[in-house]
Amino acid sequence: MLIRGVGRAVGDIFYQRCFYLFLMLMAFIAVVSFIEPTPVGRITIAGANAFLIVATVASVGRTTLSFVLALVLAVPALVYQWVALRSGDLHALIVSRWIAVALYATAIGYLMRYVFQREVMTADKLFGAASMYLLIGIFWAFLYAMVDSYHPGSFTLGGQTTTPDFFDFVYFSFTVLTSTGFGDFAPLGRQARGICTVEQIVGSLFVAILIARLAGVYPPGVKAQ
């Protein structure tokens, strides 16, 4: 009985893996929002990102190929992130972020394939769609961080050119994704503005396509004669 109960519980966890990814994404955004950019804060953010990477691998790994691909990207991302924290090496930090960008792009692709399959729309798929939307925001936050690494001064914060921390990029990314409008954070460089434009388009198209998908799942009933 105990073995059967444990097996059923594990099965439920992996069946609702998109729900747990959604919770991890919300927790990551909340943690990043309240952590100051101190050495301890950077370690905390790195730890939260590590948990997010693990949750992403678990969510994407529905087949052997997808699991191996996600794992191949996740391991070096965590290793380079750890090296960057220990040594303060900027090159290691940039490499870890590039690998994280590749991992999140892969996760978005697999989640898109899963959510838009021509099957019954389940609760797990709805959480998959929500997770995909949040992952798009995190993905672009890493892109903005990479742009600022290669082109310093690409963003203005409070009317002044400065070097933002990662939370600033997360905040800006979701501001752009949801078409809220620019506030105290705005892009200056051409590269930053170009990536920002693409994210605005992706955010608008995602909502429209998801609504169309849901409308296709629940077609109108046949009128009575």
Automatic annotation (TrEMBL):
It comes from Pseudomonas putida TRO1. GO terms for biological process: monoatomic ion transmembrane transport. Residues 138-215 form the Potassium channel domain. InterPro entries: K_chnl_dom (IPR013099). Keywords: Ion channel, Ion transport, Membrane, Transmembrane, Transmembrane helix, Transport. The chain crosses the membrane at residues 18-35, 41-58, 65-83, 95-114, 126-146, 166-189, 201-219. It comes from the Bacteria. SUPFAM superfamilies: Voltage-gated potassium channels. This is Voltage-gated potassium channel.
